[in-house]
Amino acid sequence: MTANHPGGNRRRDEAGRERNRSTGRNRTAAAPAERTRAADPARLVAFEVLRAVSEKDAYANLVMPARIRHHHLDRRDAGFATELAYGALRAQGTYDAILARCVDRPLDELDPAILDALRIGVHQLVAMRVPAHAALDQTVGLARAVIGAGPSALINAVLRKVSAKDLPEWVAELTEGLSDEVAIAALEHAHPEWIVRSLRQALVAHGRDISEITALLEADNAAPVVNLVALPGLGNLDEAFDAGFTPGELVIDSALSSGGDPGRLSSVREGTVRVQDVGSQLVARALAEAQIKSELTQGEERWLDLCAGPGGKAALLASLAAEKGAWILANEPTPHRAKLVAQAMAAVPQDTWTVRTGDGRDIGVDHPESFDRILVDAPCTGLGALRRRPESRWRRKLSDVSELGPLQRELLNSAIDALKPGGVVAYVTCSPHIAETTAVVQDAMRKRDDLELLDAGAALDAASLTGNLGAGNAGSPVRTDQMSAQLWPHLHQTDAMFLALIRKL
């Protein structure tokens, strides 16, 4: 073909391949034969996590460490894989809205594996400092390696369309013409509309200003910090500090880190140091220090963790109980989760605890007025832990709130029946939703005249290192008319833990 022939201006390199003349176009830099055909290990880990969440309804925070270890990622690659997977899961709703503008068919007609690969590609393009050509090349290479060559052309074409705009431009396009503040916030901050609405209502109900909603949604989307706790009398954090963790500022025997795999610490593997959010540590310690009426209780204190699985709070409570010469019963209805509870508590002297496998709603009948301190960490929607469980915001439904309500009330009533006169129940949820928090407590209080509420905010203050969680700009736990307390991610850098302390007269 000569230069004067139609198409004769094509040039070939020394190897005979045609050179790409479209340097101004948004294409990957490599020629087709040179494009990546293998999966980068960090991106492969992220993809495997998304697939486990999609296919097996798995929890990303449980799958991620195992996949990182399986592929032998170093700290840098582990951090990249974690941000990629968590980011793609957190922003799934917004990314799917973007993809719907770029795919020529409904997203539910795509193979789920292709959709997960696209989500990984979108996150790199609009939310990470990954050059567009690298994001395209590596995502297409991942698809070729783990899905097949067929879908790679589709993925390449779709991601090119995505790369034409940055995230603010996409959000502006998606929200154009919308007047509903909730709908706009849902797209801007990647939350389902019902959750945005629920969190706005929760802020007001717990005494906060509705204007805090933006900060709260942004806190949900921030990369979570790993929290450790050394079990009192059993563990220490020296190894964690040597590994780069820093001392926690809110609670004793805690440590924080923004990266790394805590499972590599021998103290974590041995169970004397555990991964646990600071909010969970605070509510457990608040119960342990709550004022029971000792003149109404006799002998060795008996404690109960009514909903103990998978065992994090149970292990901390058991070590606190052992220090105080108390004994604790950890109840869990599901056999396999009961085994996890026993494993979590294994580091604590075994003569100080017992695991019961059974329905917590039966405890009040089976063990009436038998316990001095009871934790009811009730099953809930988990809206307070969205930053740690990025997939849960898309998995949960508004109907879950009403469906969980009867169970929460039955468990709290059972705990009250099992409580000794003078003893204290801690009702706890990892959710600020009003229907899961003060509404449940109010119902219990209305049905009986032998209960009183303690100041849960003061108890949290007493359990904290500062002695005042409201110091500076942190914003104190809210004391409602019912004297309950609410922690917030955007104020306290903890999960949004709710606490009410109920004492039987």
From TrEMBL:
Listed Pfam families: Methyltr_RsmB-F (PF01189), NusB (PF01029)
Which InterPro entries does this UniProt record tie to the protein?
MeTrfase_RsmB-F_NOP2_cat (IPR049560), MeTrfase_RsmB-F_NOP2_dom (IPR001678), NusB-like_sf (IPR035926), NusB_RsmB_TIM44 (IPR006027), RCMT (IPR023267), RsmB/NOL1/NOP2-like_CS (IPR018314), SAM-dependent_MTases_sf (IPR029063)
**Upper classification of the organism:** Bacteria, Bacillati, Actinomycetota, Actinomycetes, Micrococcales
Superkingdom of the source species:
Bacteria
The residues that the entry says bind S-adenosyl-L-methionine are C307, A308, G309, P310, G311, G312, K313, E332, D359, D377
Is Repeat tagged as a keyword?
Answer: no
**Ranges of residues in domain SAM-dependent MTase RsmB/NOP-type:** 199-505
Q: Which GO terms describe its molecular function?
A: methyltransferase activity
Q: Region Disordered: list its residue ranges.
A: 1-37
Q: Supply the name of the protein.
A: RsmB/NOP family class I SAM-dependent RNA methyltransferase
